[in-house]
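User: Reviewer 2 asked us to show a designed sequence for the structure in our supplementary figure. I'm pasting the structure tokens here. Could you produce the per-position amino acids so we can include them in the response letter?
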């Protein structure tokens, strides 16, 4: 497997291993008992089936099973492996592991992020507006482990045509329109990797940071993320979510962790996905992931979307992009990536009925070499709220 580029000595949670194993088993059972998974379905009018929307709105996440076919998974695997080979060999480096100019080396945007093996770099810090208030347990890194492992690629659509084509997937965009309205807009895109035995944790958090005090706050105010699974995920390497926490406002995460006396929140459940499944997770839901002490790699292709009303005229940024007020022109310029994704997908899958993105339906965006140049550093225009 091309991404497994590090030694793989077995690791564990040490004194916490037995408790972690029980927690994973119980969480998996709770997750699989929830009625929020299955294939994409539509009603007689061609709308996303109301059963799906009802379950998503109740639990704050849903697993769409078998959404990606083998040929698309193969394309994604090749592209992700190529991105990893061509990534900078470390922070602030301009060349890859073979000494070639690295991807994004001449760009303005921050695109690659590393983590110390099995560590939690954000928990209990002020990073990202302090949205990760409680630190996760950090297992000991195995002897001979690398100093850092690459964990995250931001602005992934500029580095992978397969990711761009996935971004234009008609089922995903129809689901987006059903939740956020026909005039939905982007958030950001990324590739996450949890390396076997070495992948770091992401402390419990809620993604949102702009509208918590708004009188118009509802369960959809801060949008959602799609999470396409290249190899599947489980309780050891996958994301965990607290069902229903997207609809109760700002949660005192630090207080809850202190109350439990552990980072093993008993109400949380893991995403259980097979290769080709795509999960959707509300950005207001409490979620996080544990250090990957298991032998299975997780590769997740993230794509986020907002309601236009949540970003238009709003001052956002500070985490994913610079602080600014989002104008209609700014929003539409960022949204051109949706049109490029739709056209790139049309070229790869000419027999598939493409999605029509209403706000830019007449704009005439086409995916070609000029467009490839146009989207360089596009993620400095992410719409973070």
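Assistant: Here is a per-position design you can include in the supplement:
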């Amino acid at each position: 497997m091309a991404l497994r580029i590090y030694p793989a000595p077995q690791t564990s949670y040490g004194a916490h291993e037995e408790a972690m194993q029980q927690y994973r088993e119980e969480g998996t059972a709770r997750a699989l008992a929830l009625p929020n998974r299955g294939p994409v379905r539509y009603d007689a009018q061609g709308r996303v089936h109301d059963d799906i929307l009802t379950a998503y709105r109740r639990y704050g996440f849903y697993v769409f099973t078998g959404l990606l076919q083998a040929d698309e998974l193969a394309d994604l695997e090749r592209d992700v492996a190529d991105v990893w080979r061509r990534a900078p060999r470390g922070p602030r480096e301009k060349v890859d592991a073979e000494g070639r100019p690295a991807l994004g080396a001449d760009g303005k945007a921050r695109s690659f992020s590393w983590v110390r093996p099995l560590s939690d770099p954000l928990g209990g810090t002020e990073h990202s507006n302090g949205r990760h208030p409680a630190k996760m347990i950090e297992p000991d890194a195995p002897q001979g482990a690398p100093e850092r492992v690459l964990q995250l690629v931001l602005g992934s659509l500029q580095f992978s045509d397969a990711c761009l084509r996935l971004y234009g997937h008609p089922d995903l965009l129809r689901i987006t329109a059903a939740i956020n309205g026909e005039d939905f807009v982007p958030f950001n895109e990324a590739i996450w990797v949890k390396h076997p035995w070495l992948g770091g944790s992401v402390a419990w958090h809620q993604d949102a940071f702009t509208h918590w005090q708004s009188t118009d706050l509802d369960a959809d105010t801060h949008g959602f993320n799609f999470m396409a699974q290249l190899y599947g995920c489980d309780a050891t390497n996958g994301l965990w979510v607290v069902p229903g926490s997207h609809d109760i406002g700002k949660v005192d995460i630090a207080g809850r962790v202190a109350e439990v006396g552990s980072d093993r929140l008993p109400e949380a459940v893991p995403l259980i996905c097979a290769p080709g499944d795509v999960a959707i997770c509300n950005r207001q839901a409490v979620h996080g992931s544990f250090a990957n002490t298991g032998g299975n790699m997780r590769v997740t292709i993230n794509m986020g979307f907002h309601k236009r009303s949540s970003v238009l005229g709003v001052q956002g940024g500070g985490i994913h992009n610079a602080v600014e007020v989002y104008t209609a022109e700014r929003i539409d310029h960022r949204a051109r990536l949706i049109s490029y994704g739709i056209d790139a997908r049309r070229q790869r899958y000419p027999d598939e009925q493409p999605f029509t993105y209403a706000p830019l339906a007449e704009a005439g965006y086409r995916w070609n070499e000029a467009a490839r140049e146009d989207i360089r550093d596009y993620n400095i225009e992410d719409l973070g709220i």
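For the response letter, you might also mention the following. The chain has a mean pLDDT of 96. The chain has ten helices and 14 strands.
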